[in-house]
Amino acid sequence: MKVDTRLLDRVSSGPEFDAKLCLNCGTCTALCPLGLEILPRKIFHHVLLGDKERLLAEENAIFSCLLCRMCEVNCPGGVHIAENVRALRVYLNEEIHGLAEV
Ligand code: SF4
Ligand code: SF4
Q1: Terminus-to-terminus CA distance in the chain, angstroms?
Q2: Residues with C-beta less than 6 Å from any ligand 1 atom
Q3: Is residue 2 part of a domain?
Q4: Which of 7, 25, 5, 22 is nearest to 87 (CA)?
Q5: What is the residue range of 40's domain?
Q6: Residue 94 Cα, ligand 1 centroid: separation in angstroms?
């Protein structure tokens, strides 16, 4: 795995990104109406590890999130999951599509 040491800083430069609070408990996955289509804890882990390649591979999942916050209101870590997804969309739009806005 090639580590991008700037990945977390880049993702954190937009909307709030507090994935460090994640306890990896899996509650979000159990409650998400999209089921296994999006795994917030796995996606956040890629960012924290600087694994840009795996993060980019999650583009469809990141853009499929409904931002419904079903996961977030039940998250024991208090992670702002939907806002984190928004931060990831901003990052991906800039990184992949060269766009400055979501
Ligand atoms: S519910 Fe919260 S603490 Fe648990 S895995 Fe999901 S984001 Fe992490
Ligand atoms: S905000 Fe996104 S990840 Fe969370 S439950 Fe809704 S669709 Fe799933």
Answers
A1: 28
A2: 22-28, 40-41, 71, 75-77, 79, 81
A3: no
A4: 7
A5: 7-97
A6: 26
